[in-house]
Amino acid sequence: MEQRVNKPASATRTLARGLLSTVFPVLIFLVFLTLAAVLRHGLEQQDNRQIAANLEHQAEAMAAGLEREFSIHVKTIQRMAERLEVMPETPESVWNADARRYLKDYGVYQALEWIDRNFIIRWLEPVSGNPDVIGFNVAFSEQRRQDLESARATGNPDISGVISLKQGGQGFVIYAPVGTGTDNNGFIAGVFRMEVLAQQMLSSRILDSFQIDLITGDNRTYQLTPSDSISEIFAHTEPVNLPTLNWSFTLRPTNEWVENQRSDWPAMTFASLSLLGLLTSLTTLLVQLILKRNRALLKTRIELDREIDQRKIIQQDVARLESTDTLTGLANRRFFMDDLAHTLSIADRQMRQVALVLLDLDRFQMLNDSLGHQFGDELLIKISERLNGLSDERILVAYAGGDEFMLCQQQVDSVDDVIHLLGAVKQCFEAPYEVQGQTLNVTATMGIAVYPQSGLDADTLLRNADIALYRAKDQGRNAYQFYTEGMQDREVMRLELDKDLSQALRNDEFVLFYQPQLDLDRGEINSVEALIRWQHPRRGLLSPVDFIPLAEESGRITDIGRWVVLAACRQLAQWQDTPYEHLRIAVNLSGRELDDEELVDHIREALESENVPAERLEVELTEEVFIQNIERNLNQLSRLQQLGVHLAIDDFGVGYSSLGYLRDFPVDVLKIDRSFINEVTKRHDDAVITRAVINLAHNLGMDVVAEGVETEEQLAFLKNNHCNVAQGYLISRPIPAVELENAMAEGSLLKGIAVNSEL
């Protein structure tokens, strides 16, 4: 029963969709257009039948006219023959006068002739225009002779049919016998030229409107008024009833005559029905639009009612989207700052403290650049999930953008509360993170500002937390720093120094100092390490720790590194042909410089411009830089090795336990970090590690340089364990090139040092 109810409803909906479809007006127009075409075709067929009937009537009238005219002319020729039969002695002059009257009265004859019994033309009127006709034998063929003899025997006239006239042109001849049988006295002949006959018998309208083909038997013998505009559709053949002749003619109208016969009704009917169909289709389309608009209005009203019901939900979603970061799901910076301002106003009334923690992920940018932004986004999501676990009614966690997060602790009773929060944050980074199948140990650096000591409003508190964060970065990563008085002054100084850094290269304010390296096998100085200094115009000589971190943050480290390489090559060029030409200079490269695609080309150009052998230059990179992007760095270092420069690993043994890269990288020198040398004579573990590193390097075919050598005992330990080179304050501090040359010339660098000790 239910199915019977649903089927009509479904059919009704289908019909309604069909009637409202845009195809329906087009279908209506096509129906009218088809009907108009059918009616036009029918009317045109009716027109064609009427034209054919008119053409038939015209042909019948022409045939009747021809039969009548021929009958008159035959009787006329017969009367002339009867008169000559009655008066056989009629002289030629009288006959000629009589013939001229006939010619004048009828105006259709080309000539009148008397032909004797032997079928020879004897008399002729008119003679002019008919040369060589008198004496012509009209029985020029056997058929003509038989026809003429038959006419003479019966007394009936003979018509020649269309022939080529002796006088020229085409026409026909009527022969009336003068007497019958043995009493025959020849023939009276009337000669008709076809053109003249047509002009006399047919009107100019007929001649202009039709082409007439004269047919004898089955052959067309003459064509009258041929034209290029003759219709190929209409034609009518009508027989002509003439004595002794089997004549008919075909009447073909001109296209103009056909068009004049046509009615305007087919075109008018087609245009009217097409216009009516178009108007009906447009009316249907207008009705459809009205119905669709009404249906849309009804649907809109229903949707509006539904939207009104959902407005509160939507507003809540909008508020959540405005306050939430789409990537991490944490509160965004804008919402955090508004909430912080509100929290500070409450804390001011309740005399409470508020802590703002600004957290920065260590080396996140390096991970993002090397492993891809998708990797970085997934890592941020996982970190956000752990940090969000700290959120409660007293702590708000937000994502500030980039690699920074913000935490607000709303009720702080003592500094221990903040320390406890910092410990909880560090626990979020203790376990490694699993991202795209890779395991990562991530650390974070934090800056903390406490209200009201570190600022009285949200913006000031955030700025001071940022200053504390930078101070924590300067002291080493994976640390935290509270904002204290005087930090802002130091930050202002740091910003001024950063601004001056952009002018330093242009003003040539950098200089190189050189720290000698003692060859323990030969007991002489064969190499030095180039260390940059900044001769600041106001602050004096600045060490690298004061400006290199700024250069790395601003991206100017690449330009500074290029300057160092070029300055070292110039110094090597100056030492050529001097007692110091054997020295090799080691320069330090940062990770950003190693990422520079043009690094190798720049070093090559610097060596070539100063005409310095490549083996006199050594490039040092920290172990950390080596590991950051092994595949990319291997390519760069291979190119440097092919160039001929020496490659050294600086700060070896700090922070990394994998030694597999030593096998793959083309390293010439291994530099033991000073942290192992400081206690090498006091701590057994440091001594064991140092010996192991020296043996490892020698087994891999590398030289070993020990940094931070400051005592004779350290130097003796290194020499006894076959370390190749020692570097440190025991030998010399970094000094300008001039002081280095003087010290080497005087031999003062090795005074008091037991170079040849066997301890």
Structure, described:
This protein has 759 residues and is of the alpha+beta class. It has 3 domains: 43-256, Beta-Lactamase; 324-485, Reverse transcriptase/Diguanylate cyclase domain (Alpha-Beta Plaits), CATH 3.30.70; 497-749, TIM Barrel. It contains 25 helices and 26 strands. Strands 18-19-21-22-23-24-25-26 form an 8-stranded mixed β-barrel, surrounded by 4 helices. A hairpin with a 2-residue loop joins strand 9 and strand 10. Mean pLDDT is 82; it is low at 1-7.
What is this structure, in a nutshell?
This protein is α+β, with helices and mostly antiparallel strands and 759 residues long.
Helix content: 40-55%
Quaternary structure: single chain
Principal-axis shape equals elongated
Largest sheet: 8 strands, mixed, barrel
Corresponding CATH superfamily of the largest domain: EAL domain
β-strand percent reads 15-25%
Beta strand count: 26
End-to-end span in angstroms? 112 Å
Instruction: Output mean pLDDT.
Output: 82
Outline the low-pLDDT stretches: 1-7
Number of helices: 25
Query: What's the arrangement of strands in the largest beta sheet?
Result: 18-19-21-22-23-24-25-26
SSE class: alpha+beta
At CATH level 2, the architecture of the largest domain is Alpha-Beta Barrel
CATH topology of the largest domain: the name is TIM Barrel
- How many separate domains? 3
Radius of gyration: 63 Å
